[in-house]
Amino acid sequence: MATQTTASCTGSTLLQPISEIINLPLDQVNFVACQLFALLMAVWFRIYLHPSKTSPFIRHVVATLLGSYLALFCFGWYSLHFLVQSGLSYSVMVFSGLENMHKYCFIVTLGYLILCQITRVYVFDYGMYSADFTGPMMVITQKITSMAFEIHDGLTKRDAQLNPNQKYLAIRRMPSLLEYLSYNCNFMGILAGPTCSYNDYKAFIEGTGFQPRHQENANGKENGKCKQNEPSPKNAVISKLSTCAISLFVYLSLCKLLPVERAIDDDFVSSTPFYLQVIYLYLAMLALRPKYYFVWTFADAINNAAGFGFSGYDVDGSPQWDMISNLRIMDIEFATSFKSFLDNWNIQTSLWLKRVCYERCPVNPTAATFLLSAMWHGVYPGYYLTFVTGIAMTMAARAVRHNIRPHFLVSDSHKCVYDIITWACTQIAISYTVVPFVLLAVGSSLKFYRSWYFCLHLLCILVVLVLPVKSRRRQTKEQQDGLHSTDNNCNQKEKAS
């Protein structure tokens, strides 16, 4: 296997002997080796380049240079695309007017990413993941576009025009070129992310990240009693590395035993009862997820080891290091709704989609968000089939939750039954939805859906047509109107009294 993929690896060949010994593609070996090196550098960065010992300028320079080295080692000359994308976007930020800067930057950054994805997929290696330099570009795209919107919010809008989270994220000063490159290409997140806000990264570099501040999902005692000493990430890093080891073991043990492609094998479909096909599909998707658990948790551990990712203290006063975490494994595996699964999977991408699209799109934000997610992921047709199906699933799940769930809240036993049923339905729906995301091609994806008679597609359409559901924005508006009317009634009663 290693020798077959060596030619498509554009990075360093220094670790070729190791690739041949362990029989893994060279690009994967390079990736893991670079992440291990980044973990060591993160510990060194936190101890020897601590904000109390060195200036933000030095920390920015070192973080950028180390990130550039890792990119060159993994992707060779393809890593120049990172600089080209960042350079074009920064030029748009500087030279275009503030009123439309965020829109132009969004178009240029996403357009360049899509151009690179088209070239990689349809010119070089369709269906291959070797030398996938567009992976880091996807994270850089998130960072650049987020920064553009945050600069626009900070320099063109008043605080009254922003919601609390936008107010916190708003950037009040145009970042320098060094700050911009450090944010996009630092060694902690250059290969696998995760995305973070510029203000949080800047606070980390300057050493103010442990001061109490607003968080989108803040909880615990951070806003009340704040510890003055800087918490250690040691326990969090060890815990996350242990999760990585378990995830890698599970993935390597099961991925070849339960291939998703078997779900469209003619012999398997014709000889296997439908209920067993459903169970197999769930197990096959369950075997795929640990790969993402490994990559994202390892990236999170690297950031934590550098001292980045502290989110406050829990109710017991223990430090929490989940500010930029990308997933919650238990919440994923035991999700009882489609939305709950998505909210805990690839969290930072979900937040990015929410901040740049869902909260700002004036027409059908749900469909627009799924479409943007498909465009961002790549140009394989399977991605678009997955996200179009996801729109139907989301609407149907929302309708079921609004109309049926209240009837099961009358007692704990009824709610337990509801949770068990919705857990099973959620896992089946997720597995059914993401099959094209794994198979990539239109033909194989439609072959799978035909073998299931498009049953969940038809069921979703039926549910949406039969069960009424209000849009979230309409609900929010009605709630606000209700609050206003309540306030007015209270004021009238007070005046009357």
Please characterize this protein's 3D structure:
The longest helix has 32 residues, at 274-305. The chain has helices spanning 2-5, 16-22, 26-48, 56-75, 80-95, 101-124, 134-156, 164-169, 177-185, 198-206, 234-254, 266-271, 274-305, 329-333, 338-344, 347-358, 365-377, 381-403, 412-439, 442-451, 455-466, 472-496; strands at residues 312-313, 319-320. The termini are far apart. It has a two-stranded antiparallel ribbon. The chain is mainly alpha-helical. It contains 22 helices and 2 strands. The chain is 67% helix and 1% strand. 38% of the residues are buried. Among the domains are: 15-206, no CATH class; 332-486, no CATH class.
Features:
disordered C terminus; 2 strands; two-stranded antiparallel sheet; mainly alpha; 497 residues; disordered N terminus; single chain; 67% helix
